[in-house]
Amino acid sequence: MNLILAADENWAIGNKGNLLCHLSGDLKYFKKTTTGHTVIMGRTTLESLPGKKGLPGRKNIVLTTNKDFSAEGVDVVCGSIEELMETVSGDEDVFVIGGAKVYRQLLPFCDTCYITKIYDKFPADAYFVNLDERDEFKVTWEDEIMEDNGIRYRFMKYERK
Questions:
Q1: What is the count of structural domains for the chain?
Q2: Is the distance from CB of 53 to CB of 72 less than 8 angstroms?
């Protein structure tokens, strides 16, 4: 299982249900990386997406305890981690796309983390774990530093040792 997110220098990932900043290069990278694959998200993340519907070109799975939940573009709703694991069993290209609670719950199942590292700090209320301080992960690839709207960032790949 894979995980994909953008984090600032404090490993902040969101504020008040929104991304920290708008980086068009990161949004394009996210789309290119996840299109054609399965994406897993929490209900709140789905409701933060444009039109509050699943992402086109992907199989959309929502992990929520609300058993009656449904939304346009959502292929599967799972009520537990166990149900989710049965649903994605055998699917190699699965991407966890948020939010913070879902990232925390599914990190133990992820072997690869695609991180857009933002070289700045933003007001935030949602954070990810600092993978640089985790012994079980190491950086296996990093792109050149890019800049969008005066904000510097780079794409990185962390893999479980």
A1: 1
A2: yes
